[in-house]
Automatic annotation (TrEMBL):
<comment type="similarity">
    <text>Belongs to the PDCD5 family.</text>
</comment>
<feature type="compositionally biased region" description="Basic and acidic residues">
    <location>
        <begin position="33"/>
        <end position="42"/>
    </location>
</feature>
<dbReference type="GO" id="GO:0003677">
    <property type="term" value="F:DNA binding"/>
</dbReference>
<dbReference type="Pfam" id="PF01984">
    <property type="entry name" value="dsDNA_bind"/>
</dbReference>
<feature type="region of interest" description="Disordered">
    <location>
        <begin position="14"/>
        <end position="42"/>
    </location>
</feature>
<dbReference type="GO" id="GO:0005829">
    <property type="term" value="C:cytosol"/>
</dbReference>
<dbReference type="GO" id="GO:0005634">
    <property type="term" value="C:nucleus"/>
</dbReference>
<protein>
    <recommendedName>
        <fullName>Programmed cell death protein 5</fullName>
    </recommendedName>
</protein>
<dbReference type="InterPro" id="IPR036883">
    <property type="entry name" value="PDCD5-like_sf"/>
</dbReference>
<dbReference type="InterPro" id="IPR002836">
    <property type="entry name" value="PDCD5-like"/>
</dbReference>
């Protein structure tokens, strides 16, 4: 994945969005923010298309339908791995499953670390005491 290629795609998309906004009388601050978000979404989609096999991209799309936040987390992790050079080839569906399982395991460990356990001690007014009968 070439950084120059990604930058060129980003600039072309931003120019296109600015041209569309200019035809309407000039972009406002809110419109610029929307353009920035759209350019970022396009950049992420381009990177994901380069690093995911079609089956893996399809599975990620189904995950997005069920839980948007989980899909965004997986996308961020994949993009980080790609940018750091840790991905040598396209990610297969099985590799995506392994990544999902690893992320789920980490989440479970985090939840266990923050678990609060309350032990209630029986007192003098314990209703479970059958000696009152």
């Amino acid at each position: 994945m070439a950084d120059a290629e990604l930058e060129e795609i980003r600039r072309a998309r931003l120019a296109q969005l600015q041209q569309q906004g200019g035809a309407r009388g000039g972009p406002s601050d809110g419109n610029q923010e929307e353009q920035r978000r759209q350019a970022e979404a396009d950049r992420r989609a381009t990177i994901l298309n380069q690093i995911l096999e079609p089956e893996a991209a399809d599975r990620l799309g189904r995950i997005r339908l069920v839980k948007e936040s989980r899909a965004a987390d997986v996308e961020s992790r994949l993009i980080m791995l790609a940018q750091s050079g840790q991905l040598r080839q396209k990610v297969t569906e099985d590799q995506l499953k392994q990544l999902l399982n690893a992320m789920a395991e980490n989440q479970r460990k985090d939840e266990e670390e923050h678990k609060i356990v309350i032990n209630r001690r029986g007192g003098w007014d314990d209703d479970d005491d059958l000696l009152d009968l």
